[in-house]
């Protein structure tokens, strides 16, 4: 499930597959490092380098994080046509609630607009 960044909103889920993926990702040190590094949009290669992990590991962890409300996918446009997927942390705060109806995760978006941040990236122009 690839998601585009949400606009400063709140997402809540009680879907078991999403909950399982979210808990698995949060329990994984590499996933937490990727979330930390993904404050600005980055490709998987950039995330692997920033986190000092193997590229194959980074691809697996990004795939796992993409199944959660914590990371969103965008596109880095290249004037030469070599567009690349890029990822950005899509959570500023998360809360786990356990109640009579079960378990849910509520994720609040970042204060800054991740799409606007993408246009502030070097080499990216809206022209």
From TrEMBL:
<dbReference type="InterPro" id="IPR036388">
    <property type="entry name" value="WH-like_DNA-bd_sf"/>
</dbReference>
<protein>
    <submittedName>
        <fullName>Helix-turn-helix domain-containing protein</fullName>
    </submittedName>
</protein>
<dbReference type="Pfam" id="PF12840">
    <property type="entry name" value="HTH_20"/>
</dbReference>
